[in-house]
Amino acid sequence: MNKRFSFFVSRFLFLVCGILINVVAFAQDKPEMADVMRSNGKIYVVVAVCLTILIGLFIYVFLLDRKISRLEKGRD
Amino acid sequence: MKKNWWKILSFLLLIYTVVGGFLMDVPRLFILNETIRNLYFHVCMWFGMMILFGTSFVYSVKYLRGFNLRNDIFAHQFAAVGSFFGILGYATGTIWANYTWVTDQSQSLGSILKEPKLIGAAIALLIYGAYFVLRGSFTDIDKKARVSAVYNIFAFAMLFPSIWIIPRLVGSLHPGAPGSESGNPALNFKDIDSRLRMFFYPAVIGWTLLGVWIATLKIRLQLIKDKSLINE
What we know:
Mean pLDDT of chain B: 86
Radius of gyration of chain B: 20 Å
Oligomer: heterodimer
Order of helices and strands of chain B: HHHHHHH
Number of helices of chain B: 7
Number of strands of chain A: 0
Structural class of chain B: mainly alpha
Order of helices and strands of chain A: HHH
Radius of gyration of chain A: 33 Å
Shape of chain A: rod-shaped
Largest interface: A-B, 22 and 23 residues
Number of strands of chain B: 0
Distance between the termini of chain B: 25 Å
Shape of chain B: globular
Helix content of chain A: over 70%
Distance between the termini of chain A: 110 Å
Largest sheet of chain B: none
Low-confidence stretches of chain A: none
Strand content of chain A: under 5%
């Protein structure tokens, strides 16, 4: 009788453990994001590179704008 | 520096877009993951293209109302920058699709090549390509301006069925199509997150203003070149 009871208890514990493992696994099943880059601050490198390109682009367009303004004045 | 406030605005908005677009929190989505940030770049190219083509269309209509060559130059240069934005949108779209559509379950390159949104966008860009071919094939300036203005109106009218209507009718992997809810959890405008909206709309305005700035530079240069032709 005692042996049979312990068998059921072990079965029950096994079931509970299975459910718990499943729940934990499900909680980790989230979309993967670049959290590592954010935590070690490397994302700032990306931002710095993109900002450099953007600022360079704007300086270029601004200089072109100034050059064309000068051309317009020269012709008038 | 009197009427140049919008150029500074464009600069500030794009700085805001790059800093906020990379650093701020975005919704966590399967398959898309971190690529959802492309919303601030890829999608803005197409929005900018639509606005620039719309402006070009308005100037073509204005040209046909008064036959002022100045308006023809405006229409031409806005269409040129619009096409450039379209090509950039297409190129960025291929990169994005390569990492989000191909990896999706049974998607292969073959199924992507049949994608109605891609075919529609290619048709629209090719129609605008023909606009520049048409312009180049005339020697008579007035005839060139007149025929290409009429063609530009047709091209703008074709833009809507080819990139908006047909992909939505037949279903597509691209967000916004009826088939996209299943298998591709991308955003449509019903579930676009407010965190995305905070940067998406400023990004659209910023990129469009940059496009307009480049277009005005090209227009001014063309006006200097054609000074003898424009009677004012």
